[in-house]
Design a protein that fits this description.
Blueprint lengths: L2 H16 L4 H5 L1 H13 L1 H14 L5 H19 L6 H21 L23 H10 L16 H15 L5 H9 L7 H16 L8 H52 L2
Helix pairs in contact: 1-11, 3-5, 4-6, 5-6, 5-8, 5-9, 6-7, 6-8, 7-8, 8-11, 9-10, 10-11
């Protein structure tokens, strides 16, 4: 386990706590509570959480955290967005969006380039979802692809799920950007600090220019504030990564110089 990465994650968590909670979570507190209750209590999601552990677990908990927050935000957005669904349908659709969010992360756990379409859907075989609901989950849980609105009727469950999952994905580049970038952009278990810096720069840059990509009215209203907090924190974490890399390089230089000094003394004593 990389102790330096753990220390950087702790710094990131402290920075996130220093930010005021984005107004989205206050303005839709009731929907946030509903989504949280779904995630921690609904049998379909509990079963999926249990079976997803081998795919999402790592010593740093990046995958588990990303999946949990993505699922809860997607469910919250379904409830918060006036998509044309009636309230009861929206509640059921929020469950499906949370399931789709978890399936999406399981499918992408090995990296998007290695994704095997449908590999995670066997986890839904014994769930309480109907066949039509499983089909909706399958269509909505694409990896980082912008949904094609031409194939999604307005006021449909599919459009609500797909749009909200898309926006919830970009919400992850807010205050918890460090965990998100580590989970989505790099093999952090083996990456060097130089590699982490390079990938983190890409993540921060993505967050900086993502505001125009939100699909729901709620995302367009609240997303920029969330991303602004992510960019601010991301730049601080980039500085921490660069400092850690410089310290590591300095230690290596000192060790190399010490080794050369000892080698020279040994030769001189012969």
């Amino acid at each position: 386990m990389n102790e330096r990465l753990i220390a950087l994650k702790k710094q990131s968590c402290r920075l996130a706590r220093q930010h005021n909670l984005p107004s989205f979570y206050d303005d839709f507190a009731e929907d946030v509570s509903f989504a949280s209750d779904l995630f921690f209590n609904h049998p379909a999601l509990l079963k999926l959480q249990e079976e997803s552990v081998p795919f999402l677990y790592d010593d740093y908990m990046f995958g588990i955290e990303h999946s949990k927050r993505l699922a809860q935000d997607a469910a919250t957005l379904v409830m918060a967005w006036d998509s044309g669904l009636d309230r009861n349908t929206a509640r059921r659709t929020s469950l499906l969006a949370a399931v789709a969010a978890m399936i999406r992360d399981i499918e992408c756990a090995g990296g998007e380039a290695e994704r095997t379409q449908g590999s995670a859907y066997v986890m839904l075989d014994d769930s309480t979802l109907s066949d039509s609901e499983k089909h909706l989950v399958s269509r909505a849980s694409t990896c980082r692809r912008r949904p094609d609105a031409s194939d999604m009727p307005e006021a449909s469950q599919l459009r609500a799920m797909s749009y909200c999952l898309h926006d919830a994905y970009w919400f992850r580049f807010g205050p918890d950007i460090f965990s998100t970038v580590m989970w989505l952009y790099c093999d952090y278990s083996t990456a060097s600090l130089a590699d982490l810096i390079q990938q983190f720069e890409i993540g921060v840059n993505d967050a900086r220019y993502a505001s125009d990509g939100f699909l729901t009215e709620v995302g367009r209203k609240y997303g920029p504030e969330i991303l602004e907090a992510g960019v601010e924190q991301g730049e601080i974490m980039l500085e921490r990564l660069r400092e850690a890399a410089a310290e590591e390089a300095s230690c290596k230089e000192a060790a190399s110089a010490l080794g050369a000094d000892h080698s020279g003394k040994a030769r001189g004593s012969k």
